[in-house]
Design a protein that fits this description.
Layout: H1 4-28, E1 35-37, E2 40-42, H2 45-133, H3 139-154
Antiparallel strand pairs: 1-2
Helix pairs in contact: 2-3
C-alpha cells in the first residue's frame, strides 16, 4: 500500500504531465500523436487526458474498496478476539463448576466407602453371632443377605 506522500507525489507527477501535454497541444495544434501507455495506444492528446482521468477514477474506486475492506477486516478481527476472550471466560467458569462436581463426587465416594465398611463389619459381626448359635449354616450366603439388607436400608 502506498503512503500518502507517495500518492501525493504521483498525483503531482500526473498533473505535471497533463499541463505539459495541454501546453504542447496548444503550441502544435490538434495533431494526431500516437502514444503508448501500458497496453493502450492513444492517438490523440485529448483521449490521453481522458484515459488518465479514467485511471484516476479507477484508482479512487479501488482506494474506497481498500479502506472498506480494511475497516471490515478490523471489525471481524475485533469480533474474533471478543469471542475468544468470552470463550476463555466461559471455559474458566465451567472449569470451576467441574472442580466443584469432582469434589462432590469424591466426597460421596468416601461416604459410600465408609458405609460399605460399616455394613461389612455389621454383617461380619452378625455372621459370627449366628456361627456361635448354629455352626452348620453356610455363612457366605447369610453374609451376602445381611449386606444386601443394610445396603437397601442405607441406600448405597
Amino acid at each position: 500500500m502506498l503512503s500518502k506522500e507517495e500518492i501525493e507525489k504521483a498525483k503531482e507527477f500526473i498533473n505535471n504531465i497533463k499541463k505539459t501535454i495541454q501546453e504542447n497541444n496548444m503550441l502544435f495544434g490538434e495533431e494526431n500523436i500516437t502514444i503508448k501507455v501500458g497496453k493502450t495506444t492513444v492517438q490523440n492528446i485529448d483521449t490521453l487526458l481522458q484515459y488518465i482521468d479514467q485511471l484516476e477514477q479507477e484508482n479512487k474506486a479501488l482506494k474506497k474498496g481498500q479502506t472498506s475492506l480494511m475497516s471490515s477486516r478490523k471489525k471481524w478481527r475485533n469480533r474474533y478476539y471478543n469471542l475468544k476472550s468470552k470463550n476463555k471466560e466461559d471455559t474458566e467458569g465451567w472449569k470451576s463448576v467441574l472442580d466443584c462436581a469432582k469434589f462432590e463426587i469424591n466426597k460421596r465416594e468416601q461416604e459410600k466407602d465408609k458405609a460399605n465398611k460399616v455394613i461389612d463389619e455389621m454383617a461380619e459381626y452378625l455372621v459370627q453371632d449366628i456361627r456361635c448359635i448354629r455352626p452348620e449354616i453356610e455363612c457366605d450366603k447369610i453374609r451376602a443377605c445381611i449386606k444386601q439388607y443394610f445396603e437397601k436400608k442405607v441406600g448405597v
